[in-house]
User: Fold Amidohydrolase-related domain-containing protein from Neolewinella litorea.
Amino acid sequence: MQDPVHPNRNKVNNGTRRLFRGRAYTAALCLLLVNILTCQRPEPLKGDILITNVNVIDVERGGVVPSQQVLLRGDTIHAILDADQDRPLEATTVIEGEGKYLMPGLWDMHVHNTGDELMRTAFLPLYIAHGITGIREMSGMPEDFLMKDSVDQELLVGPTIVMGSPLVDGLSTWNVGDHHLTIPDEAAARAIVDTIKAQGYDFVKTYSFLSRDNYLAIMQRARELDIEVNGHIPNEVSAFEAIEAGHRTVEHMIGLELSAASNEAELRERLQEKIRAIQPDSPADVSRETFLAIEYEPVPHVDPAKEDSLFALVADRDTWVVPTLVIQKIISYPEDERFWDDDFQRYIDIHNRDTLLERDYQARGRLKPTIDYRMHSLKRLHDRGGKILAGSDMNGGIPLHVELQLMVESGLTPAAALRTATLNPAEYLGRTAETGTVEAGKRANLVLLEENPLDDIRNTLTIAAVINRGRVYDRAQLDALKSRAVAVLDRVEAQVRAENGE
Assistant:
C-alpha cells in the first residue's frame, strides 16, 4: 500500500536494496578474484641455499637433467624443480648454476687414515677439497672414533667416515703395530670378532696371512653377531669359498685371478709355503716379500671358464669388488707421467711419495702383468653384473679421481665409473635413502662441476664448489683448504727429512 505522506518511499527502498545488492556482488567478485590470484601465486618455497639453472647428473641412468633449481634446507635437498616452473623459490644463498653440472658427493671406499694431527688438519679437509664427502676406513683404531665423532659434530671439516677394524691377520713381522692383530687359533678368531663388534666398528678387516680355519671361524662368528667381513681374501682360502661364506668386499681384486688360475692348487701351495716359513724372528723383508707375492704375483694362465663362474658368483651374491687400480698402477708403472703431476704429488704425504713414486722402482716391472690382467678383467666383471666400488688406497683426494680414470681406461663408461663412487657405495652401505644420487630428501653432499663428467671422466676434477652437510665451500674456500693442508704436509716432510739427516 502506498504511503500517502511519502508516496516515493517504496521506490527509494527498492533502489537502495538494488544498490546494496550490486555492491555485495562487486565485493564477492573482488573476493573471488583475490582468491584466484592467491591460488595462482603460491607461497614461495624457502630454503638456505638455492642452485639455479643447473644441469643435474643422473648417475643412476647415466644422463643429464638440464635447467634445474635445487633448493637446500639445512643438510638436506629440500626440492628440485624445473627452471621454467612458476613456483617462487627463496634462499639466503643463491648459487648460479648456469652451464655447470651438479653431481652427488664422491665416496672413496678404501682409505687408511690415522687420528693424528696430519690426518685431522691435512687429509680430512683435502677430501672435501676434492669433492669426496664419504670415506671407508680400512684399518681403524680406537682413537679414530674421536676423529669420526668430531666430523659428525662438525668440529672438524671432513667427510662421513665408515670405520673398519684393525687388520686381522696371521703371523707377520712386517706392517706390525696396534693396527695389526695376529690371530693364533680359532678361539682367538671368534674372540676378536666379539671385541670388534663391542668397540663399534662397522666391519672386520681380514688380511692375507690368516689361516683357512681361523678365517672361517671369523666368518661364522661374524654371521652370529651380524657384522660384515671385508678385506683381503686370505691366501689359503679360494675366492669361491670366501664369497659363499659371506665375504662382503674383495679389496684390490686379490685372490680373484688366483682362484681362476688353471694351476690354482700349485700356485696357492707355493705361496702358502712362504707364509708357513715366517717365524716370530723372521726379518720384516721376508714377510713383506711374501705379502707382495700374494698381492701381485702374476698368474701365468687364467681359465676363462673358471673366471666366468667366479664373476657370476660375485654378481649373484652380496659381494662387492674394490679394485684400487691407482695404487697398483703407481707401483707397477711408476713411469706414468700423471703420477708425477704437481697436483697429484702435492697432496701425498712423504711416506707414500718416497715408497710409491720413485723412478728407480722399475724392479716392480714384474708386477705389470698383474695390474694389466686386473684392468682387463674389470670390464668382464662389470659386464657379468659384478658390483664395483671405487677406492684409492691413498690419501690426498686426487687418487680417487685417477681411480675413476683408470676404470674408464679399463673399458667402463664414464657413467659406470661414476656410479662406483656415488650410487654403488650408497647401495653397498644400505643408505640409498640418504645418499648416492641428487634427489629431494637426500643429504646435501654435492659437487658442482664446470664440465660434464659423463663426457669425460677427467671432468670430475673441474670442481667449482662442494657442499658438505649443507655447507657451501666455493672455489676460494676449497683453495684455502688445500693451502692449509699443504702447509701441514710441508712441515711434516721437513721434520721427517731432518730426523733422517737429509
